[in-house]
């Protein structure tokens, strides 16, 4: 076992000198184990209720600032959306019980199948694995989407776990996230059109949109800018859904076949399989 020296941190992380604990407690390893093991009982049981869909939702930390600093195009940056989707694919590839994922803006929701026993259904394990796989993928694939534009600092994502007991609840959850996408995208599309094409300041655009309903916003786009909101890209209006696509199914059959002794013998036959993600 290794123990690190504790360093006082003053704004910056300082490196720690690491020394083997066994040097200090060579003769009392077993005793120490039994004496200290009780601390395990302080861990909270966060097992997710059986039969429920487990949804992990991630959201970018302070992405308002992150988007500004990395010059995301307004209102939607397809590079950023593509990178989010690529990172979500990586999560789905690693955590096989995720059946569907939905993303928009700086968030992604991952739905685990109801019968999943992954990490013994422990909420903290599921959430942290999703968040860390997603975050590291976001950094890893950054160049594929932003080319030479540098990543200025490491982005973070928060996570939460929500359980949904019925298909109806899950469908309503996904509809809720998609409605959020639609409402925000309609607002942002009109807002930035007023600024970029209409020459309004951001304050004036905000004033112009105060109290307007969806129909009013559609009308502003259509009458003043000849833009039909229905023709905007589905990616921006509706977000992204990732599902598994069956390619070749694995069929495992157990059957009896007569052998020369006249008895029956069981055998397994299996076909190779493969599965891929589709948008
Ligand atoms: N320009 C631009 N900004 C985006 C895009 N996608 C996300 N954002 C920014 O990311 C923000 C995401 O909103 P929130 O998640 O509510 O806010 P946040 O700033 O991330 O704050 P917290 O989530 O509370 O940490 C948006 O308000 C935008 O400012 C994009 O495609 N283009
Ligand atoms: Mg955010
Ligand atoms: Mg968000």
Q: Mind explaining what this structure looks like?
A:
Mean pLDDT is 86; it is low at 1-29 and 262-279. The protein has 279 residues and is an alpha+beta fold. A hairpin with a 5-residue loop joins strand 8 (252-258) and strand 9 (264-270). The strands form 3 sheets. The protein has a 6-stranded antiparallel beta sheet with strand order 6-3-5-4-7-10, sandwiched between helices. It has helices spanning 29-36, 63-69, 78-94, 123-140, 142-146, 167-196, 202-209, 214-225, 234-238, and strands spanning 2-4, 18-20, 53-60, 98-104, 107-112, 157-164, 240-248, 252-258, 264-270, 274-278. The protein is globular, with a radius of gyration of 26 Å. The structure holds guanosine-5'-triphosphate and magnesium ion (2 copies).
Shape: globular
Order of helices and strands: EEHEHHEEHHEHHHHEEEE
Number of strands: 10
Main β-sheet, spatial strand arrangement:
6-3-5-4-7-10
InterPro entries: Thg1_C_dom, tRNAHis_GuaTrfase_cat, tRNAHis_GuaTrfase_Thg1, tRNAHis_GuaTrfase_Thg1_sf
Pfam families: Thg1, Thg1C
Binding site for Mg(2+) 1: 59-60, 106
Region (Disordered): 256-279
Produce the secondary structure layout.
Elements: E1 2-4, E2 18-20, H1 29-36, E3 53-60, H2 63-69, H3 78-94, E4 98-104, E5 107-112, H4 123-140, H5 142-146, E6 157-164, H6 167-196, H7 202-209, H8 214-225, H9 234-238, E7 240-248, E8 252-258, E9 264-270, E10 274-278
Antiparallel strand pairs: 1-2, 3-5, 3-6, 4-5, 4-7, 7-10, 8-9
One magnesium ion binds at residues 59-60, 63, 106.
Task: Summarize the model shown.
By secondary structure, this protein is an alpha+beta fold.
